[in-house]
Amino acid sequence: MFNPYLWILSIGHLVVDLGQGVLPIITPFLAVRLDLSFFQVGLIALAFTFSSAIIQPIFGVLSDRYSMLWLMPLGLFLSGFGLALTGMVNSYELLLFAVLLSGVGVAGFHPEGSKIANYVSEKGKAGASMAIFSVGGNLGFALGPMFAVFLLSFSGLDSIYGVIVPGTIAAIFFLILTPRFKEIVKEKSSSRKKQKINAISTRNNKVSLILLIIYVTVRSWVHAGLVYFIPFYFPAFRDIADPEYLVTIYLMAGALGTVLGGPFADRFGGRNGLLVSMVVSLIVVYPFLHLSGNWIPFLAFVLGLALISTFSTTVVFGQKLMPNNLGLASGLLLGFAVGMGSIGVTIMGSIADNFGLPVAMNVISLLPILGIVLAFTLPDDRPKSATIKTDIPLEQEA
Predict the structure, then answer these.
(1) Is the pTM of this model over 0.85?
(2) Which residues span the domain enclosing 10?
(3) What total number of domains does the chain contain?
(4) pLDDT tens, position by position, 63-80
(5) What's the CATH code of the domain at 68?
(6) Which residues contact 50 (CB under 8 A, 6 or more apart)?
(7) Distance in angstroms (rounded) separating the CA atoms of residues 298 and 304
(8) Burial 361-398 (b: 16+ CB within 10 A, else e)
(9) Which of 51, 66, 81, 387 is the most exposed place for a label (fewest CB within 10 A)?
């Protein structure tokens, strides 16, 4: 668990996902500058997550077939460069292009990074290892709002170009480390061929994978909807003038939840982790949106802790369902399924335009019910009951 390369990957994950926390905060400023509707705001989220997430399975397939470690430094640079352009454009079309460019950088980094994180994990601790990798991304997402506020304090959107600095520094560092990463891939790929694969073996792995993707889609609809609409909802309906701190609390709690969620899944099973996550989220989200006073930051913390805790769990679950296609599994669970959240933001934006933002937020608060149902349909992946194709219990494997 103290493999230095795992923590380096986590730091890279932090940097590449920093922009995902910056974009929701600068979106209201972009909306004012370009006179955008809620639907157009949703399209910004859709553009970013289409390029950063929905196309990730394509990079995942390429990652499984070819060695494309150069995508990590390139992705780190593009993720910051594209966002830097958002403060310079003067049309909605150019804004969407800049957001798309940033998203492509994010998409290039994740499959390769998560695959190497899996390779260097200790036996029986894949969840904990993926949690370390994932917590970097969640921390980046959480620190993004503060970083955005810091940059905006200088010259508003005109100073947002500073977001390019962390990505450029990280890109140079990862470029230097690329030869070592190539050695790790070669070593681990060779050793894995000689070992039994820790996998879930059921007759309906494809069905289970689809259900898992739908689960992550539901989680992403709730997660992305809250992140993008908290800056609009709380000033207008809860009398909180500066709600950015709520986004930060929510995302920082999510980073902590990711650290706890991985080991929980290793011990009690991923399915149980997914179920607990949605049950707690369902209990907390409605009061968070409707109560006042000191309860709001506390509920933001509990909601982030619960909802985001399964980010690493779902990736490991998917890799167990697709043990021979780790890059594709990562692309599907980190990318495509998470990216579907942007479609949810677009739909919620349309609902907000036509029926009011409170109605859209109430719809978001009911989505965990579907998540609970989906969690019950997934196979039990606990070590004592999960099996590989030879029907040997995982806990008895050599």
Answers:
(1) no
(2) 4-396
(3) 1
(4) 777 778 888 999 999 999
(5) 1.20.1250.20
(6) 100, 103, 339, 342
(7) 10
(8) bbbbbebbebbbebbeebbebbbeebebeeeeebeebe
(9) 66
